[in-house]
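Changelog entry: the TBCC domain-containing protein 1 record was regenerated in this release. Current contents:
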Amino acid sequence: MLVRSNSRRFMPSQADEEIHQLSYLQKHMANILTLLADSVEGEGDDSLVLTMETFEHLGFLVQFSEGTSLSQAATFFANSDPDMPAAPVPAAQVLDWMSQDIASALEYSAERSAAKESNQQTMSDLDVTMAEANASHPRNSTPSSNPAYYRNVTFVEGFSKTSVVKHASDIKGNSIKVLNCHDSVIYILAPLKYATVYGCSDATVVLGAVGKVVKVEHCERVHIIAAAKRICIANCRECIFYLGVNHQPLVLGDNHKLQVAPFNTCYPQLRDHLMQVGVDPGVNKWDQPFVLGVVDPHDSLSHPAGVSDVKAESATCLDPDLFNNFLIPSWFGDERQEPTCNPFPLPEIYGACQNKKRSALEDIQKTIRELQLDENRKRELATALHAQFKDWLYASGNIRQLYCLQGD
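Regenerated C-alpha cells:
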C-alpha cells in the first residue's frame, strides 16, 4: 500500500474511494449544477436550466455504461430529436435525477464493500457504473452474477521496479486501469475510451490516446504523459502531468505540488490513434486547470482534523528550462514507420527552450568532432563518455528499464 506522507492514514482501497467519491458528489451536486446552469427568466428553481451540451460536462465526474453518453442515459434528454436542439431542463429536475442515481450507486457500493469485508465476495474490484448499479440492485442479484464484473477492462496492476508495454493488440475492451504500480515505467500505446491511474508512486505512465477521460487518483511523484479529451486529477502529490487535452484539466480533492506541462512524446501510430478516438491535437488546454470545490476538514480520507476549509490547491506550470521530450524506444512500434514528431504544437517558450538545448548539444558534438586527437586519446574520450552515460543510467534507474525492455 502507498503510505501518505506527513503521517496521513494509509491510502484507501478502491471500494472505499468509490464510496468516498459518490458521497462527495452527493454532498456537492447542487453546487456543481448551479455552477453549470444558465439563468433564465423565472422564479425559484425554474430560473436555472441546463442545456444538453452543458449537462454532458458532468461526464467529467460520472460515467454510465460504456458507449452510453450521459444525455442518452438521462430520461429528459434520451429521446431528443438529433436534428433539433434539445430544450433546456430545469436544474432542479437534473438534481433530482442525479441524486437518485448517486444514492442507488452509493447503496450498491456499500453493499459490495460489506460483502468483501465478510468474505462473501471473492472477486477483485471492478468498475461498476451508476447505471449498472441501478440495474443490478435488486436483492436477488449477487456480485458474482452481475455482468458488470465481467466488463472488458484491461488491468496493469502491482508492478514494481520494471517496465510494462501494452499495444492495441494487448488491450481488452476500451478501458485500462493502472493500479498500484511503483518505481516503474508503463507504456500504454493504444487508442482507448477511458483510463484510470490509481495508487501509483515514483512511476512514469504514458497514455497514448484516450477519447473520453483519464482519471488520476492517489498518486505520488508520478509523471503522467497523456493525450486525451479530458483528464480529472484527485488527491495527488508531487506529480507532473505532460498533457495534450482538449478540455481544461479538472482538479479535485486534496492535491499538493502538482505541475502541468505540454505533451512531450510521440510514437509512430499516435496520430492515427488520436484520430480514432476523436482527440484534436490542434487544441491543447494543458495550462488551464480548473479547480472544483474546497478541501473539506471533515473528509477523513484526505484531510487532517482541525483545519478550516481552504480552496483546493491547483497546479503550476513546469519551468520551461526543466521541460524535456520523453523518448519512447523505437522498437515498440512498427519499425518500418518513420518516427513522428509531437502532434501537439509546443508553446513558444517551451519550443525555444528545446531549441536552446538542441543547439547546445550540437555545439558539443561539433566540438568533439573537431578535436585533433590521436587514436589513443579518442578511445580515452569515448571511454569517459560511455562511463558517464552508464553512471547516469544507473543513477536515474533507466538501466533497469533498458534491461527489462531488451528482455521483452
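The CA atoms of residues 206 and 368 lie 35 Å apart.
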